[in-house]
Structures are given as structure tokens and as C-alpha cells.
Amino acid sequence: MPQFFISKRDIIDGSVKITGEDFHHLSKVRRIKIGENILLRCEDGNAFDAVVSDVGKDWIVAKIYSEAISLQKNIPEITLYLAILKSGNFDFAIQKAVEIGVSKIIPLITERTVVPREKADNHKLTRWNKIALEAAKQSLRSSIPQVMSPEFFMDIIKRDLSDYRVICHPGATVDMRDFFKNNLKGSIALLIGPEGGFSHEEIQSALDCGWRALNLGLTHLRAETAAIVIPSIVIYEWS
Fold first, then answer.
1. Quick one: which of 6, 68, 171, 237 is 20 to 30 A from 136 by CA?
2. Which one of 3.40.1280.10, 2.40.50.100, 3.60.40.10, 3.20.20.60 gives the CATH number of domain 78-238?
3. Angstrom distance (rounded) from CA 34 to CA 54
4. Is the domain 3-68 a CATH 2.40.240.20 member?
């Protein structure tokens, strides 16, 4: 069943009119017809089952018939700090991280980041949030994770207030299995570096600020792969 995000003010007399890109997707891509069901999700996370009751030239009306049950209340709060990657790798990482269940994504500027901050600010942020929106729809997320403006590594390691703060580093002596064995669940921030990894100075600075360095096991993962694997492990262990 396709999901679409709406505002509560869009609900008038138990019905919602769908226009714009969502209308195009329903009518041209999915070729939805009167009588078919869709899921409507409000900004507060509440969801409603609805049935298409009318179709116009550039709009669709869906009538709400029940409140849907959310299955995502136990997903832990995960902030993903991901170094900006080259080409489409960052787009891919955003899409999959949202599908998996991260709460927020913050593009990271590190010593070895290739993409300049000004380029990321001006040309990518809108695109990244659109990718997050589409991924949230596709995966039936109860909310839309926001992709924030890029931040510098040295700023965020001092400012983040998550219960657990983890920097992923192949040379760390503690692995993910030991971490989950010894810690109760809570909010968690994950630092994942660029293609060349974090510098020694960055790792030491994070440790000095109270972050924990964890390795992922026997293999070294690409950054975009780590952005999928690590949140998946967190959600599996703590959900």
C-alpha cells in the first residue's frame, strides 16, 4: 500500500485532496484507481487508512476510513553523521539509511572530505531531503528523517548530546558485539568517515570528547556500506 505524508490541516470532512508530485506518482506511475487503498501519514506520526474516492485531471481525493497502527514506536533514535561522499554514493547512503530507520542525517566535513562545503550547501541539500522523503514513503516510515546542513567534524564531536556516541574506526579494539553486550539501549550518534577514513587527529579528538571507537569486525567496509550496516545492527539489537 503506498504511503503519502500530509498535514493535519489537509484533512477536511474526513477526506484529503492529493495534488502535485504525489498526484503524478499515484496517477501516472502507480495508475491508481477509485476504490484502491493508500496510507496517509501526518507530521506527528499518526497514520490513516484511506480509499481513493475520486480522481480528477490534476487531483485525487482519498477518504479516511480508519486509523492505522504504527509498528515503529520501538526504533531507537539514531543520528547518522556521514562524511560527504563522491558521486552518487552519498545519495545511495541517504536512501538506504532512511529505509533502515535512522532518525536524522548530518553530512560531515572532515579532513579528507572531497566535496567542498559550499557546493554541498548550494546544490545538494534540497536533493538530499527529497531522497529522504521518497525513501520514507517507500519504507512506510512514521516520520521523515531530515538531512541537515553540513557540519564540521570538530564542531559536532563537542556538541552532540546522544546517550551513546560512536566513531567507527577499523583500528578500534572494541567491536560492535561487545558494545551491545555491555550497554542498555538509548539514543546513539554514529560517526562514519569518508573514503579515506578519519585522520589520526580526528579519532583522537573524538576520544578526548568522550566518543567511543568501535570496529565492525574482520572486514573494512566502504563508507556507504557502513552507513547501511551499522544502523541496521543498532536497530536489530535495540528494537
1. 237
2. 3.40.1280.10
3. 6
4. yes
Question: What are all long-range contacts of 124-130, with beta carbons under 8 Å and residues at least 24 apart?
Answer: 124/90, 125/149, 127/91, 128/90, 128/91, 128/94
How far is 71 from 101, CA to CA, in rounded Å?
12
Backbone angles phi, psi at 194, to 5 degrees: -80, -170
Q: For 172-202, b where at least 16 C-beta lie within 10 A, e where not — what string?
A: beeebeebbeeeeeeebbbbbbbeebbeeeb
φ/ψ of residue 180, rounded to 5: -70, -25
For 19-41, the pLDDT digits (tens) are 988 888 888 888 889 999 999 98
Which 3 state secondary structure label does DSSP give 192? strand
CA dist., res. 71 & res. 92, Å (int) = 25
In this predicted model, what pLDDT tens digit does every residue of 150-184 receive, in sequence order? 999 999 999 999 999 999 988 888 888 888 877 77
Q: How far is CA 63 from CA 42, 52, 198, in A?
A: 15, 6, 51
CB 82 within 8 A of CB 108: yes
